[in-house]
Design brief:
31% of the residues lie in helices and 25% in strands. The chain has 3 domains: 172 residues, FAD/NAD(P)-binding domain (3-Layer(bba) Sandwich), CATH 3.50.50.60; 151 residues, D-Amino Acid Oxidase, subunit A, domain 2 (D-Amino Acid Oxidase, Chain A, domain 2); 107 residues, Alpha-glycerophosphate oxidase, cap domain (Helicase, Ruva Protein, domain 3). The strands form 3 sheets. Strands 3, 4, 5, 6, 11, 12, 13, 14, 15 and 16 form a 10-stranded mixed β-sheet that branches. With 511 residues, it is α+β, with helices and mostly antiparallel strands. Helix 1 runs parallel beside helix 4, helix 1 crosses helix 7 and helix 8 crosses helix 9. It catalyses: a quinone + sn-glycerol 3-phosphate = dihydroxyacetone phosphate + a quinol. Its EC number is 1.1.5.3. InterPro entries: DAO_C, DAO_C_sf, FAD-dep_OxRdtase, FAD/NAD-bd_sf, G3P_DH_FAD-dep.
């Protein structure tokens, strides 16, 4: 029995952005790492963000200068780490004098430009809106500044892929059902969510990076009280056909002092969000409510010439942010900063728990978390992730890369190539290989999704159902009909059945 027990240095619980970031950092420093995620990678908060890499302009109003400075510095790092997933995005802020005076906005933007070194992005400036502006005609002045856009779920997947390629075990659909200390070792039991099989793992350290479940893991698995309260805050978004043709995003001020983003999304849509609503209940059951829909529709219609209604909504998503409970009066003012709590009684195995955080600072959070593990793993090497690109990011110019692929695969449409490169970067080559025609890519599931791409994400990126593929490996779910989704589901099941049967077959005796 003991011979069947896996022994690792670190078990990371949670396959969101913080968990995969920590796994990648730790394995790159020479630690043996296993990550378990009870569902799919990025299946909760990390695929339901506003999809921005940003300093957090509004955090300045809450005097979160350290967080903003760190976020702005990380923005430059991440633009280089994943140039296919993370791209510059210009924001326009219409001025509403009765909400925030111009001097306050100028001061905030000055700090935003200068709190950290700015290399890639343009400085902020005042602008005038002309007649061709999508905004209502009474809005004539505003400001412009730069941040960045990110495909959030793919950022998670690529960090997991980076960890795997360095030797980490990435176990999706796998829940940690128990963990107990035996002196200097954690004894964990993991259960696969599909076949309910159990596996035993021993680890020197556990990292609790389970996001909205960070506190419940203490009571349900670790059997001890959580050392830190968290405040669950729901953020919801709506997606509508694009309401203007410009490449800019807009940041809208509201009467309640909150802001809402209107962001170009997947070529044909506008992404509008987010809300800030206190949430209680199971994070897996989160969804947008009518009040949030009305809120987002109303503020959009207050600013734009093209108005929208609830009937225009083609997709919604909601995420629960696990924020530190700092006893703020409103959900919008709760800090987005993070903290670690290390539980390491003398001669006992260590537990590090992650509370809070935001996607922009995930890499810095991961580096700091692994630094805290140095005491328990003195042989590990120095931090390394700041200069290491993520899989597929080993190029300097997306425009040039696009041109190369169009020359190499002239039978693919430019839209198809652009989507593949924005999704996979140079790993697109693993999908297209030496194909000489569209037919060589196999079944066409619709909207440019080929059998070759589906096979790739199933074999290399842990995708195991149509939702994984349509919403977290791509965003093609925005276009797929129910019939097309069923066709894809049938194919995925047909691919999975042989491996399921193989796993159920009795193993040959070694006695």
């Amino acid at each position: 029995m003991e011979a069947d027990i896996e022994i690792v240095d670190v078990v990371v619980i949670g396959g969101g952005i913080n968990g995969v970031g920590i796994a990648a950092d730790a394995v790159g420093r020479g630690l043996r790492v296993l990550l378990c995620e009870q569902n799919d990678l990025a299946s909760a908060t990390s695929s339901n963000s506003s999809k921005l890499i940003h300093g957090g302009l509004r955090y300045l109003e809450h005097y979160e200068f350290r967080l903003v400075k760190e976020s702005l510095a990380e923005r430059e790092v991440l633009l280089k780490k994943a140039p296919h997933l993370i791209t510059p995005l210009t924001f326009r802020l219409p001025h509403q004098a009765h909400l925030r005076p111009a001097w306050m906005i100028r001061l905030g933007l000055f700090l935003y430009d200068n709190l950290a070194s700015r290399v890639t992005l343009n400085a902020s400036k005042k602008i005038k809106f002309t007649e061709d502006s999508p905004l209502k005609s009474d809005i004539t002045r505003g400001f412009e500044y730069s941040d960045a856009w990110v495909d959030d779920s793919r950022l998670v997947v690529l960090n997991a892929l980076a960890a795997k390629e360095l030797g980490a075990q990435i176990c999706t659909q796998t829940r940690c059902v128990s963990a107990e200390r035996d002196n200097g070792i954690w004894k964990l039991t993991l259960q696969h969510q599909g076949d309910k099989s159990l596996r035993q793992v021993h680890a020197k350290t556990i990292v609790n990076a389970s996001g909205p479940w960070v506190s419940s893991l203490f009571s349900n698995v670790l059997k001890q009280p959580s050392p830190q309260k968290i405040r669950l805050v729901k953020g919801s978004h709506i997606v509508v056909p694009k309401i203007h043709q410009q490449p800019h995003a807009y940041i809208l001020q509201n009467e309640d002092q909150r802001i809402v983003f209107v962001i170009p999304f997947e070529d044909d849509f506008s992404l509008i969000g987010t809300t800030d609503v206190d949430f209680s209940g199971d994070p897996k059951d989160v969804h947008i409510d009518q009040q949030e829909i009305n809120y987002l529709v109303n503020i959009t219609n207050h600013y734009f010439k093209t108005t929208i209604s609830e009937h225009d909504i083609v997709h919604t998503f909601s995420g629960v942010r696990p924020l530190m409970d700092d006893e703020s009066e409103s959900a919008q003012s709760v800090t987005r900063d993070y903290t670690f709590i290390v539980d390491a009684p003398k001669d006992k195995a260590a537990l590090l728990s992650v509370f809070g955080g935001k996607i922009t600072t995930y890499r810095k959070l991961a580096e700091a978390a692994v630094n805290r593990l140095k005491l328990f793993h003195p042989h590990m090497t120095k931090p390394w992730t700041a200069s290491q690109v993520l899989p597929g990011g080993d190029f300097t110019d997306l425009v040039t890369l696009n041109r190369i692929y169009q020359q190499q695969y002239p039978w693919l449409t430019s839209k198809h190539i652009s989507r593949l490169l924005r999704t996979y970067g140079t790993r697109t080559q693993y999908i297209l290989n030496d194909a000489a025609s569209i037919d060589a890519l196999g079944i066409d599931f619709g909207h440019g999704l080929s059998q070759a791409e589906v096979d790739y994400v199933m074999a290399n990126e842990w995708a195991c159902c149509s939702a994984d593929i349509l919403w977290r490996r791509t965003k093609l779910g925005l276009h797929f009909s129910a019939e097309q989704q069923q066709h894809l589901t049938d194919y995925v099941i047909s691919k999975l059945i042989p491996s399921v049967i193989k796993n159920l077959e009795p193993q040959a005796s070694t006695v």
